[in-house]
Design goal:
The chain has 443 residues and is mainly β. The protein has two domains: 277 residues, no CATH class; 104 residues, Immunoglobulin-like (Sandwich). It is built from one helix and 38 strands. The protein has a 15-stranded parallel sheet that branches. Strands 16-19-21-23-27-26-25 form a seven-stranded mixed sheet, with no helix packed on it. Strands 1, 2, 4, 6 and 9 form a five-stranded parallel sheet that branches. A hairpin with a 2-residue loop joins strand 25 and strand 26. The C terminus is likely disordered. Keywords: Membrane, Signal, Transmembrane, Transmembrane helix. This is Autotransporter outer membrane beta-barrel domain-containing protein. Pfam families: AC_1.
Length: 443
Amino acid sequence: MSGAGSHLEAGQFLSIGKELGDSDATLNIGEGSSVAVSQELRLPSVFGNTASTGRGTININGAATPGFLHALNIVFGENGLGVLNFNHTDNSGNYAFYAPITGPGTVNVTDSGITTLTRDYTYHGKTNVNAGVLRAGSTNSLSPTSDFAVASGGTLDTNTYSPTVKSLSNAGTVTMLAGGTGSVLTVTGNYVGNGGVIAMNTIVGADNSATEKLVVNGATNGTTILNITNLGGAGAPTTGNGILVVEVAGASNGVFSLPAPGHLEVGGFRYELVKIGNNWYLSNNERTEASPVEASVACTPSQLGGSAGLVATCTVSLSVPLGVDMPINLNLPANSPRYSSTCASPLVIAANATQASCTITAVAATNESDVMAELSIAPPSVADAYAVGGVPAQVQILGNGNSRPGAGAHAVPTMGTVGLVAMASLMGLIGLRRSRKHNGRQG
């Protein structure tokens, strides 16, 4: 059924593929099309003949409205040659597959769409995520008896669940980011990293920090990058092994690493991914002094005239971004009728940002005196949260009618035309007298 908007109602059984000879059969369910089977769909229908070479394939195609398949049960034939292909390109995240699947067969995700599996599945065979996204929609929707392979262009999304798979080969992306810090991905067999990425959340702090985790009951091999997202951790010493992120029961030959630069900087602590025994931990040996977090402040412009409404912007900066909101204590300007200020202490710099700003605004002068508004960084409330850097920022508010360098140029007195003529005559007279004196000495 490749035509858009087609609909097929089948009776009690629908067989795709037969056991006779080498016959194969394919059902294409295209854009806007649907197939409904009242009970069982056999893929292929080989009736216990494991030697049969008959194949049965279902292709789910489409873009905006991919094909829909409803069956009481999809039964992969005993010969293991049944295939379900998700070839659609709907990346809205709305496409969900509901039909149960049992038996030995293969599930492929081959195009750029997002497919959510909503049932608890028990099929065994291979699940290949070659492109797009295969997303868990229930606890066991990623079949615990299937061998999963994620290609370089594919993504396996555990969503908010803690699924178990039989084995996992990863050259693409496995993401656990929707699961907060409570999700665990368990591999009952072996895990092989083919240069793929596992993305997980951790509250980066001390050894007992909450974190998502990869658990491998079998062996590990190959290389994998762990992309850790810090969910609000402020950093703390790891006095034991550290934060357990990969747990391996079997032979631990796989190598896990953090993305460049190869470590995490949180709250002045440098975390590295280290292997202790069979397991991998986020660990810091000591507080790093190599790149201290420094807070400084600067105001622009540094001088305001005596008119009302002139504004200086004061920017508080961190030398490096942090993964959490950072409150910066300030020594605020003294109260004065000559200016107003939006600056408050503490001034919070948002997570992953490096700057926050406030303002100083001039009030119309009522006298001739100047005033100075000074703003500086105060020590943190939590020891060593940041270092006080730079010098205090000053904004000069000029008195009414006053001017300073930069506020207006001073007038340079001039002599006028008559003065210049007189000066020239005087210089000529002085030169003549010197000439006569010199000639007299020679005579």
